[in-house]
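Database export, one record per block. Field names are fixed; values are copied verbatim from the stored entry.
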Amino acid sequence: MVARELPDAAVAGPQGAGGEGNPFDLDDARAYRRWRERKLDLRARCVGDLLVPLADAHALAPHERQALLERVARTNMALYRVPTAAEDPALPRALGAQLGLERLDANWLADEDGISHIAVAAHREPGLPGGGHADFIPYTERAIHWHTDGYYHPAGRRILGMILHCVRPARAGGESGLLDHELAYIALRDAEPAAVRALMQPDAMTIPERRDAAGVARAAQSGPVFTPAAAGALHMRYTARTRSIAWHDDAATHAAAARLARVLAGADPACAPWILRLRLQAGMGLVCHNVLHERSAFADDPGAPRLLYRARFLDRVAATG
């Protein structure tokens, strides 16, 4: 993959020229047009635009760190490749710390270090916690549909940053789809601003409670799909699942959810090229602002099972500089 030099322009931000306006205000068409133009100009045209080779993820050179920060600032994500595919569960945390990612979200399926080892449950290495993993799709060979991580978390635990590092790919399949969630916002707002308004409602999407043998393991969580975040960024909370989810019960919200599903299915020819696809190879990884992502089904190799490390953070990647 050959990287294209991204435009040497100011990073697309929330405000218009001179600091005036807010592109996420549906009544501010002028600020939106300025932000939209810059966002589309700076977007990645191919996977190679996002890729940064790293000599040592534990000790980034200044130019490597800057290259990662600039890509995340422009496109909400960056890809990297390290020269070794050794099992190193400390890598995501060490890399994250150099990029401003400090507050690790240690969910209950993660290991003691707070890093999730994503592998088919039957292939979990000895000594790693495995109880209940097979009940969750990431720990199976099945496809995972479009989502952002932590969509079932309360607002105080929003997953703002994430690192996904590939130790071993599957024998076949396991392709990732990536879409900058701010481009999804553009696709919806261009087509039907009312869809964005519906998805910004405080109870647009509700994830019902999850119960286990002990009772309520996770309370129901309601919230918007699109939320203007700190520093003028946009946060997205979404899952394409059709079970264990409830949309705000009005026609506008159901229509908005259906339109978003069509965008993610690539049915809109204008924005279909904005979806990037790749198969992470050993030593490759993703650093992102919790962009929309999906994974195809795969066939594993029992002798060398697929293994990825996932670190989720309550922080955004640091600003450039």
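Remark 1: The chain has a mean pLDDT of 88.
Remark 2: The longest strand covers residues 161-168.
End of record.
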